[in-house]
Amino acid sequence: MDGNWASSLITRPAFTSTEMRSTKHIAVLLSGRGSNLQSLLDASHADLLGGAISLVVANRPGAGGLEIAQSAGIETALIDHTAYVSREAFDLDLAATIETISPDLVVLAGFMRILTTDFVARFENRLMNIHPSLLPMYPGLNTHQRALDNGDTHAGATVHYVSGELDGGPPVLQAKVPIGADDTAKTLAARVLKVEHQIYPEAVNWHLTDKLSFKDGVLCKDDQPVPLRGCLWN
Ligand code: GRF
Questions:
Q1: Catalytic: 45?
Q2: Which of 25, 81, 131, 144 is catalytic?
Q3: CA 58–ligand 1 middle distance (angstroms)
Q4: To 10 degrees, what angle do helices 185-208 and 35-45 make?
Q5: pLDDT 10s digits, 1-50
Q6: Could you say which of 3.40.50.1820, 3.40.640.10, 3.30.70.20, 3.40.50.170 is the CATH number of the domain covering 134-157+172-234?
Q7: CA-CA distance, 10 to 232, in Å (whole number)?
Q8: Which has the closest alpha carbon to 90: 110, 67, 52, 60?
């Protein structure tokens, strides 16, 4: 093993009894400040998430999300990607750490790493991401500036299941916000972030309460096909 297990803070043993599985378990992966984690925690505390956040993993030592998790009494693990010789080795340790909670859902919340296809396949149909654009527009970085440069009238955010492509995979839920004449990338990002905090807990709830399913490879909600851009929020 070439990973940085010395920095891993995880202490929770793997689940052993079926009784413990009556709760749905979520692992959150993040790299930064963790405002989406906070919104998921708030929903969980209000009993609106359909499950519990049982593990938070960060790949960067300074990630603010780690402190949020620790303050909430959630198990955390720091797996510093810079200690790994390859993306594959990092993803193997990441997956092994996540498997300790046998997650019903793995939630990417500002996790700034491209995952290997093996990792994505391992958590297929139980791996979600939120992206700050109206996918399929603007995968990747600088989404708000790109929307402004393009003269778009609306921006937004999309929750999607993760496939092997960058910011790809079937959209679940999408929220639009208007772009104003005076908007900058910063003001737009703040407006989009507000709706991120609404749609991510909702989409996680849909997954954990079995409202979402795949039928012949097509994503459905309540047994009806989800539109190509995801269900529209409001
Ligand atoms: C969010 O804008 C999210 O859409 C993107 O990364 C950012 C994470 O923010 N994937 P935070 O760490 O949750 O505050």
A1: no
A2: 131
A3: 13
A4: 40
A5: 333 333 444 444 445 554 456 899 999 999 999 999 999 999 999 999 99
A6: 3.40.50.170
A7: 37
A8: 60
